[in-house]
Design a protein that fits this description.
2 domains; 39 strands; 344 residues; 12% helix; alpha/beta; LpxD (chains A, B, C); homotrimer; 28% strand; UDP-3-O-acylglucosamine N-acyltransferase (chains A, B, C); Udp-n-acetylmuramoylalanyl-d-glutamate--2,6- Diaminopimelate Ligase, Chain: A, domain 1; UDP-3-O-[(3R)-3-hydroxyacyl]-glucosamine N-acyltransferase activity (chains A, B, C); UDP N-Acetylglucosamine Acyltransferase, domain 1
């Protein structure tokens, strides 16, 4: 429960209306009830405000007049403000210091650390203050984990990795498994190339459930500060991801790819190996990046959905596009009309 | 070992031939041996029956005459009957009540529950009768799991989730990890939006290995009764899936998508966020759904395979389709022939 | 630390230069320092050798003259030789025999086996010599694991599976979960078909983090000797994969597909069910194989990347390809020029 005035004291913004009003929850416009604090992130939903029962609203300053009579917090970015208020209402779970008797710990840990039942921590592991190692996690020999980082249940971190401060690793994450490197014998058999590099995660990195980040072959795999990876993502060996890049679920990044800072990579996108993506690139969902991208912008390569019948009819031509193009060229050569090919 | 008569007494159907014949196993037509019960789910395999050594066959009633002399169980849906017989021959593993001494349990559990070694169950967890919590599973504070549900080894369920009755969660499943929600600062840094919703699974839900279902941001993520999810599927926050929908491996569903009842979603399909899919929709494998689907039917958007050479030749034109279409328009404008564009 | 002469004594090859030179590490050409052994796998990097500080180089014999004055190991396949040297420098972690007191073991194991904390091994499990079962792994009843195989932390192996010798299973791997098999009732509800088959892995198989291999329905799922699977791959029930086939991350193989020997399957590729792929087939990344492939070769079906604007412009025509083709046909019928359609 916070009064609007308390929120503004902590988070900034300007109050219009009654600063003594108390709110107990944040909620979206369309379901907010009395006692809730709603937010209007996009002006196109302004018409919904009339029916909204929320006790107060987070809005941009230009709406002050239009919403006169409501209790408002005015701020340039209501969605960002909502995020910060939601953090106040939903603080992360408290650290409960101590090592559970069913954990197996072979390193010396700070007293502030929490280690859950079934967790195992090998030799020469260095944990910062307030680190939480969830139930049944494994942390391999020589790994370092920075202050305030939390591993939820069933996370596996291999040996000699580095994880920064204030990171969140969700259940099932695997950090530092061997990269996929083999040399081929003439017989066709594959000879394993030992993966001697590490994984190095920056600070404030969040990694979603069952995502995997492989260790490097000779050098390291490096994930920059503030990177956010969703669930079930594969990051191959020697990949480098710049700070504040965000990647949606089921994306895959092949070996030695370099992704810039502040990129946004869509779900199920694929990034081929040994290429570079510039800073501030947006890759749409379900898109393959098979060549380097050197300029910021939005890049797409996915397919429209059709009814199955239309798909059969239209996509049968994909195998014959070259013939079709040749036929058009032929027609042009025998046409009397002006030639438009130069524009193609 | 069951006699045909016993099977029909339990499962219905009509015997033609000798009801005293005993069968010990179900098997496909082409590999069935003496003592086996085979099934003919599709009339096109009728010619194989002559060589089939099975002691009895499950077939549709119309085949009674054609297969006179064989021992038959006649039923309208042989494949469904086969499934039920297979369940009789292969009952689920028995529950072995008790909490393993290497489990860490902080809630009061019914005596009928089985908790494996290394499992951890936090405070305020409510388990129904005959629940099985496999080795090294984790069940977070406040979660409820209904009667008869089984978690195989290494499943992670976060706090405050609800799992129905008779569900099966395979190894590596993660239920209730944080949804992927962030607001962006001007600097490009991402501010975490706490995920305060839950995951609510209905009854008879089966979830395949390493599949992840994220908790909602403000509302819940809801999976209906009888839904079946294959392995390595990502279900993002606030998704809703209607009852008896089935989804094949590696599919991904983005945030707040609503999928109807009795849908069938193919492997590696992608469903974008904030859209709706009607009941009884079939989405083909490897297809992206980026817009809502309002009518039942089969929808497809995947690519034909070609030899690499043909692919280079044909798909190089994909970047120039607009130019090609323009050239065709140009030709049409200068052609004397009847104009066919109206049909396009 | 090895002298070149020692390396050649163990691994073959011919020395040019000083065999007494000692190297302590392998490194790529562009970052190698004094004391390192670099390798030149591709002649196109020859120009980099001049600046390379490595103490010695692995090269093909034809470069002997061009690199006179450097210390060389001459071998037909420098990359393969590099792999073997890297193995010498980075031997696999030693087995530390013994069962951790926090493991739950219900079978009799050889004294040479290592079982980590939190691991659980059910009844009737047979482990070969020097097997390593990592922390929090689970091995189900009746499973057999061959000599020298290593399971990293948090691997789940269901009952009655067979894993060969010298395999490596990375964290989060799930072997033997139920295949995805259901029969449909008229109501739309799905009836589970018990999965009574096994998973059988050959020798020298490596399986990447969080990859899943489902058990067969009636028959087995079979992975041949020397197969290498990357992370987050789904192998459905009754799939068969021939020896030395390699598959990159996030690929998915649907039920009963048969993949030949020595195939290379790209990342995020999809293989539909009930089809066959011949030996020595290469499938490009992000490609769907929906029909059988009967001949060796490279096959592709992925999409070019475009700026979002170009994509909108070009790909809007994909829904109208049939109309476009029809319009071209129409133009041809009314054209006086020679008809080129026969070449299409």
């Amino acid at each position: 429960m916070f009064r609007l005035q308390e929120l503004v004291d902590r988070l900034g913004g300007v109050i219009a209306g009654d600063g003594a009003v108390a709110v107990a929850r944040v909620a979206p416009l369309d379901t907010a009830k009395e006692g809730d604090l709603a937010f209007l992130a996009n002006r196109k939903y302004l018409s919904q405000v009339g029916e909204c029962a929320a006790s107060a609203l987070i809005v941009t300053p230009d709406l002050r007049e239009a919403l006169a009579g409501r209790n408002l917090i005015l701020t340039a970015d209501p969605y960002l403000y909502f995020a910060r208020v939601a953090q106040l209402f939903n603080p992360p779970p408290a650290v409960r210091p101590g090592v559970h008797p069913l954990a197996a710990v072979a390193s010396t840990l700070p007293a502030s650390v929490q280690v859950g039942p079934g967790a195992s921590i090998e030799e020469d592991v260095v944990l910062g203050e307030d680190v939480v190692i969830g139930p049944n996690c494994h942390v391999g020999r020589g790994t370092r984990i920075g202050r305030g980082t939390r591993l939820y249940a069933n996370v596996s971190v291999y040996h000699d990795c580095v994880i920064g401060e204030d990171c969140i690793l969700h259940s099932g994450v695997v950090i530092g498994a061997d990269g996929f490197g083999f040399a081929r014998e003439k017989s066709g058999a594959w000879v394993k190339i030992p993966q001697a590099g590490r994984v190095v995660l920056g600070n404030d990195v969040e990694i979603g459930a069952n995502t995997t980040v492989d260790r490097g072959a000779l050098d390291d795999t490096v994930i920059g500060d503030g990177v956010k990876l969703d669930n079930l993502i594969q990051i191959a060996h020697n990949v480098r991801i710049g700070e504040h890049t965000i990647m949606a679920g089921c994306a895959g990044v092949a070996g030695s790819a370099r992704i810039g800072a502040r990129c946004m990579i869509g779900g199920q996108a694929g990034i081929s190996g040994h290429l570079s993506i510039a800073d501030d690139v947006v890759v749409s969902a379900w898109t393959l990046v098979a060549k380097s991208i050197t300029k910021p912008g939005v890049y797409t390569g996915n397919l429209p959905l059709q009814t199955h019948g239309d798909w059969v009819k239209n996509f049968s031509h994909l195998r014959h596009l070259d013939a079709l193009a040749r036929r058009v060229r032929q027609l042009e050569q025998h046409s009397d009309g002006p030639d438009d090919r130069s524009q193609g």
